[in-house]
Amino acid sequence: MHALFDSPGLRRVSPGEYPLWDEALALLNRDLAVTLPEQGPLQLVAQPSYEAGEPEYVYVALADGEWHGGHLYPKVAEDLAHALAIVADAAQDTVAERLGQAWPLCVEHNLGMHAREVEGPLSWWCAGERPRLGPTHIRAAVGALDTP
């Protein structure tokens, strides 16, 4: 567990510093606003690297600056789809550990969903069974949980 001011040099990342992470986070924040409206938007925070010449560590944090899990690697994301998968994983780690709950939940099964690329854009996938429809299902594209 980490809070915004627990670590030396930790700062909020300004919009535009990491454009792919920003775009990915904007999509995730749409889903967070629909599923956990009492939470503020997720944000990016950064901390200087412990190794000279290496890029800073960037984390997905709650609105209060607390985060959990590993950092994002700025040079790894090749495109928005890849960035979205990485940021979704980090966001789920932070929400699960800091709020003590799975996120997002499938409203049909009350199970935590996972981001998966299945025949199209990255989507929220649920492992819950659906009679006559199969054992798993896609709930919605990441960023579109507010659509039926």
Specify the structural class: alpha+beta
Low-confidence segments, given as residue ranges, are none
Helical proportion?
Answer: 25-40%
- In percent, how much strand structure appears in the residues? 15-25%
Residue-averaged pLDDT = 87
Number of helices: 2
Distance between the termini: 35 Å
Largest sheet: 3 strands, antiparallel
- The string of secondary-structure elements, in order, is EHEEHEEE
Rounded to an integer in angstroms, the radius of gyration calculated over CA atoms is 16 Å
Q: What is the number of E strands?
A: 6
Which outline best applies?
elongated
The largest beta-sheet arranges its strands as: 1-2-3
Structure summary:
The chain is an alpha+beta fold and 148 residues long.
Summary tags:
3-stranded antiparallel β-sheet
Structure, explained:
With 148 residues, the protein is an alpha+beta fold. Helix content is 25%, strand content 18%. The chain is built from 2 helices and 6 strands. A 3-stranded antiparallel sheet has the order 1-2-3. The mean pLDDT is 87.
SSE layout and pairing:
Elements: E1 11-12, H1 19-35, E2 43-47, E3 57-61, H2 80-99, E4 114-117, E5 122-126, E6 137-141
Antiparallel strand pairs: 1-2, 2-3, 4-5, 5-6
Helix pairs in contact: 1-2
